[in-house]
Write a structure and sequence with these properties.
- Keywords: Methyltransferase, Porphyrin biosynthesis, S-adenosyl-L-methionine, Transferase.
- This protein is α/β, with parallel strands linked by helices and 258 residues long.
- The protein contains eight helices and twelve strands.
- The chain has helices at 24-32, 70-82, 101-110, 123-130, 161-167, 180-189, 219-225, 240-257, and strands spanning 8-13, 35-38, 55-58, 61-62, 65-66, 86-91, 114-118, 144-148, 170-174, 197-202, 210-215, 232-236.
- The strands form three sheets. It has a five-stranded parallel sheet with strand order 3-2-6-1-7, sandwiched between helices. It has a five-stranded mixed sheet with strand order 8-9-12-10-11, with helices on both faces. A two-stranded antiparallel sheet has the order 4-5.
- Strand 8 (144-148), helix 5 and strand 9 (170-174) form a beta-alpha-beta unit.
- Helix 5 (161-167) packs across helix 6.
- It is globular, with a radius of gyration of 20 Å.
Length: 258
C-alpha cells in the first residue's frame, strides 16, 4: 500500500444480515468514521455504532436498480479521503467475496490513498450455518465453492458449470435466484444427478429467514411456488441432507427437556 495522501478508507464487511455477526474490529471502524458509504444488504442497525455527526451515504444496489453506480462509489471514496476524512465503505458479507472490495482498493491505491480491508462473515458461511447446513461434512463433502449465479447471460465469461458439477462437493451460489432454472439445467446437462439435494436460504441469519429444500429435479418449481426473493443463497450438495438430521436431533433434544 502507498503512503496515505489524505484520509484513510476502511473497506468493511458487515456480515450476512444478523447485526450480532459483525466483528469487533468492524464495529470499532464504524465508530471512527467521518463518512460511511453503506450497501443495501447492510443491516441498518449497525449504523447505530456511527458517531452522531458521521455522514451516512446510501449506495445500495438491487438487481437492475443501483442507487449509485460503482464508478461513482469509487469516485466518492477518493473524494472524501482527499478531504482528509476517515471513510468506512460498509458492505454486506465480506468485501472480497462478490463484494467488489478489490476494485475499490485498487482505485484508492491508484490515487495514493491508504486503505484497509476488514473481513466479514460471508453469506455462504453465515446463512448456511444459520440454516443448519454444514458446507463440509465428513463422509459427504470435503470441498465447497462459492459461485456467482449472475453470469449465465451477457458478455462476461460464463461460469464453468461443467467443471463445478463434479470437481466440488458443495456449491454455494450467490445471486442465482433469477437464473435458477438455467443453473439447474447446466448442472443436469453436465451430469449432476437430478436427486442432488438443494436448499435455498432466503434472507439468511435474519428474523425473516426462510429455508426451502428440494432437489435439482424440482427446486426451480419450488422457488416459483414459494415466491423466493433476493437476497437468497442456493446450496447444492449432499450436505443439505445433514440439515434434516440436525433438525431431527434438535427436536428430540427438546422433547427430552420437556
Amino acid at each position: 500500500m502507498r503512503a496515505a495522501a489524505a484520509g484513510k478508507v476502511y473497506i468493511v464487511g458487515a456480515g450476512p444480515g444478523d447485526p450480532e455477526l459483525i466483528t469487533v474490529k468492524a464495529m470499532r471502524r464504524i465508530g471512527l468514521a467521518d463518512v460511511i458509504l453503506y450497501d443495501r444488504l447492510v443491516n441498518e442497525e449497525l449504523l447505530a455504532y456511527a458517531r452522531a455527526d458521521a455522514e451516512l451515504v446510501y449506495c445500495g444496489k438491487a438487481p437492475n436498480a443501483h442507487a449509485m453506480p460503482q464508478e461513482e462509489i469509487n469516485a466518492a471514496l477518493v473524494a472524501y479521503a482527499k478531504q482528509g476524512k476517515t471513510v468506512v465503505r460498509l458492505k454486506g458479507g465480506d468485501p472480497f467475496v462478490f463484494g467488489r472490495g478489490g476494485e475499490e482498493a485498487l482505485e484508492l491505491a491508484e490515487h495514493g490513498i491508504e486503505w484497509e480491508i476488514v473481513p466479514g462473515v460471508t453469506s455462504a458461511i453465515g446463512a448456511a450455518a444459520s440454516a443448519a447446513i454444514p458446507l463440509t461434512h465428513r463422509g459427504k463433502a470435503a470441498s465447497f465453492a462459492c459461485v456467482t449465479g449472475n453470469r449465465c447471460h451477457g458478455d462476461q465469461e460464463p461460469v464453468r458449470w461443467d467443471l463445478l458439477a463434479h470437481s466440488v462437493d458443495t456449491l454455494a451460489i450467490y445471486m442465482g435466484v433469477s437464473q435458477l432454472a438455467v443453473i439447474r439445467e447446466e448442472l443436469l446437462k453436465h451430469g449432476k444427478a437430478a436427486a442432488t439435494p438443494v436448499a435455498i436460504i432466503e434472507r439468511g441469519t435474519t428474523s425473516k429467514q426462510r429455508v426451502i429444500t428440494g432437489t435439482l429435479a424440482d427446486i426451480h418449481k419450488l422457488a416459483v411456488s414459494f415466491k423466493v426473493v433476493n437476497p437468497a443463497l442456493i446450496i447444492v450438495g449432499e450436505v443439505v441432507r445433514v440439515r434434516e438430521q440436525l433438525l431431527l436431533a434438535e427436536r428430540q433434544a427438546e422433547a427430552w427437556v420437556m
